[in-house]
Amino acid sequence: MENQSREVEVVIIGAGISGLTAAYRLKKKDPHLDVLVLEAKERVGGRTLTVEMKSADGSDHWDLGGQWVGRCQPQIMALLEELGLEVYPQYIRGLKFLQVGRLSNIASYSSDIPTLPLMGLYDLHRLLSMTDKMALEVNPNDPFSCPKAARWDCETLETFIDSKIWTEAVKDLLRACMRTMFGVELSQISLLYFLTYVASAGNMKNLIEATENTAQEYKIKGGAQQISEKLVKHISKENVLLGEPVSMVTQAGDSVEVISKKGNKYRCKKVILAVPPSQIGRMEFNPTLPVETREIIKRMPPSNAFWRVAGSSGEVVSNGGASMLPSCDMGPLGVVYDATSSNAQPALLGFMGGLQAVQWQKMEYIEYRDLVWDTEPYNEGAPVSCVGPGAMRFYAKGLREPFDKIHFAGTESATIWCGFMNGAVQAGSRAALEVLYDLRPQLVAASDIQVIGGHRSGHKQGQGQSLSGKVVKWSLGLGIALAVIFTARKFYNSMSPA
Ligand SMILES: Cc1cc2nc3c(=O)[nH]c(=O)nc-3n(C[C@H](O)[C@H](O)[C@H](O)COP(=O)(O)OP(=O)(O)OC[C@H]3O[C@@H](n4cnc5c(N)ncnc54)[C@H](O)[C@@H]3O)c2cc1C
After folding, report:
1. Is 299 helix (H, G, I), strand (E, B) or coil?
2. Residue 56: what pLDDT?
3. Low-confidence ranges of the chain (pLDDT < 70)
4. CA–centroid distance for 417 within its chain
5. Phi, psi angles (nearest 5°) of residue 425
6. I need a labelling partner for 437 at 20 to 30 A (CA). Which of 60, 123, 234, 371 fits?
7. CB of 15 sitting under 6 A from ligand 1
8. Is 382 exposed, middle or buried (0-12, 13-18, 19+ CB in 10 A)?
9. How far is the CA of 3 from the centre of ligand 1 (A)?
């Protein structure tokens, strides 16, 4: 087939939530603006993917990617409303199970506060409030402007938690939480990046809880991929080309030429890059991208949650934990081993034995799906790309500052809820305004100019009572007692002969 050549005003690369939000905002401001979205995959939605599966009553929809939202995330909530999508609360009532600490005891609890020894509760409260306090010193628009930036950027989240936390159970709890949130080991995350992430979300409570006004408050009825599908309807299907991976972007004179792997050429006045940093690194740019951008994308690999890459052997020994099914006394798996074949085909092998095997073999699953985001083309990892130690000095300029006619969107470039769907919307809207400011300045309001300047809005610090607030109520008495004991011990030590 002959290669095509097309001329438009704006090319947006990537049809995830961020790229499509940028297209939607541009078309909303000026329906005559010629905008074309180029997407590598044969589907829209990027890191959101909703699948239909058989269910007890026929079939239903489940999300394999981004799914939770909350009222503390103003941009995504407003977009959901504009698109007519409804949310429903995450179910959190009833017993919860916690398996942490060396003894691997399973504790159950039903409040918002994990069952931990009192010393652990105090430890957890200390870390949460210390983190919130430190995050207040970090401006997500320019994290490296913080006076302690260089020091915090040398440290990793692992060394921070290791040095500040006394109890093994709380270390385990935080590691489990952070691994899930970032998809990498804590030793791979710069402390300054982590604090930037907390600052962009407002506070730790917003990030980690599933209660009112937090990030895991609601799910989207019918699935999160609908956000992108609805946006496509608004900007019109002809303006979104699927299966069109971009390989090269050349800026020359007044225009930009975008070339796809298929050899198709698109000439335009402006480009919005709405792909994860690792995918920017796979494209060729002429002239090359600024050094800050090259440096930050090299140090922002996509996360991977899987066993060998995460430094794990794959080996698990468990008593099965608690069962979700009333007819089984415990969870299904006893021992898991790495079962990678001699041809290096990765696999895990799990054993069910004894009562576990007797009870679980009677069970039939209706359908099973999983998705390893590491191997998903044009993502290569999830949920977010993290910055390792020593690279944050390039962060703000490298990820967000326009390079002549190229503008940057994508959740990683957001200043409010970066890494989340909210961040994708905020960054897409900001990039759209930047483009509009140059192409249609008459359509940009004074309030929009503030947004382009990257000002921070949307969260109110300390909404509701935080987990740390609740923990402090429970542990205050003990905290005071401990403080006295520690001070006394310190005093005693300093008095003792060396
Ligand atoms: C398992 C998982 C759970 C998550 N949970 C949550 C959650 O509960 N709540 C939440 O808010 N967020 C969550 N997230 C994160 C959220 O999904 C993302 O922040 C958001 O979807 C990112 O949107 P984006 O548009 O910035 O990037 P993406 O969704 O990654 O979109 C980028 C698009 O660019 C395309 N692309 C890449 N390279 C090229 C190229 N060369 N040419 C053309 N196109 C290209 C990609 O195919 C992709 O479609 C989760 C993510 C995952 C994977």
Report:
1. coil
2. 75
3. 1, 95, 101-106, 304-324, 333-351, 382, 453-498
4. 9
5. -70, -45
6. 234
7. yes
8. buried
9. 29
CA of 66 to the centre of ligand 1 (A): 8
| pLDDT value of position 467 | 45
Phi, psi of 63 (to 5 degrees): -95, 135
Residue ranges of the domains in the chain? 5-89+218-305+376-452, 96-209, 307-371
For residue 214 and ligand 1, the question of a CB distance below 6 A is answered with: no
Number of the ligand 1 atom closest to the C-alpha atom of 68: 8
pLDDT digits (tens, 9 = 90+) for 205-234: 999 988 899 999 999 999 999 999 999 999
Do 48 and 228 touch, CB atoms closer than 8 A? yes
Task: Give the total residue count for the chain.
Answer: 498
- Ligand 1 in contact with 256 (CB < 6 A)? no
Residue whose tokens read 């929809």: 61
Asked, colleague to colleague, whether 5-89+218-305+376-452 and 96-209 share their fold, the answer is: no
Residue minimizing CA distance to atom 50 of ligand 1 = 66
Looking from the CA of residue 14, the nearest atom of ligand 1 is 34
Which residues are CB-neighbours of 457 under 8 A, at least 6 positions away?
Answer: 74, 416
The class that CATH gives domain 5-89+218-305+376-452 is alpha beta
Report the C-alpha gap between 247 and 1 in whole angstroms.
Answer: 19
Q: What is the CATH number of domain 96-209?
A: 1.10.405.10
Backbone Cα Rg of the chain: 24
What DSSP element (H or E) covers 425? Answer: helix 421-439
pLDDT (0 to 100) of residue 160: 97
User: How would you list the strands of the sheet with 406-408, edge to edge?
Assistant: 240-241, 35-38, 10-13, 270-273, 406-408
Q: Is the CB of 218 under 6 A from ligand 1?
A: no
Residue keyed to tokens 């081993």: 337
